[in-house]
Write the structure tokens for this entry.
Amino acid sequence: MTAANLLNTDLLNAGRALVAPCTKEAAEPEANRLDVVIDAGDLLDAVAALHNAKWGYLSAITGLDQGAEAGIIEVLYHFCDGAAVLTLRVPVPRDAATVPSLYGLIQSVTFYERELMEMFGVTVTNTPNTDRLFLPDDWPDGVYPLRKDFDMTQLHEA
């Protein structure tokens, strides 16, 4: 193990300790990465712990649709500190996908939250801006292009 990997391991362990009260599961899928599963109700506390400790920065929010059969969409909050990446994984029911906005903690989050709403149909409560980012104004409501069951024929039917 290199000195850089030891440093990243220390960073990830510090991040793990910060979000421990909210953690349901944790895994290290590869070097320099820690994935922590939390409930949506714990999201603000987990992010506040990282933010207040100045543990890295929020680099992205992404969605992962597990498909209609699984009924789950995961909302992934990726925090980086150097090469160390801590991802908060928040599974939400696909038919009622809702997470709280991080805007009160990280004001630059609105871009990511708008993209999440637009592409996956995840409702972000208390986000200050719900305007579309990428899709045209005449895009049909309830059609989310990054969900696994998206079909172009939905555009013609709407």
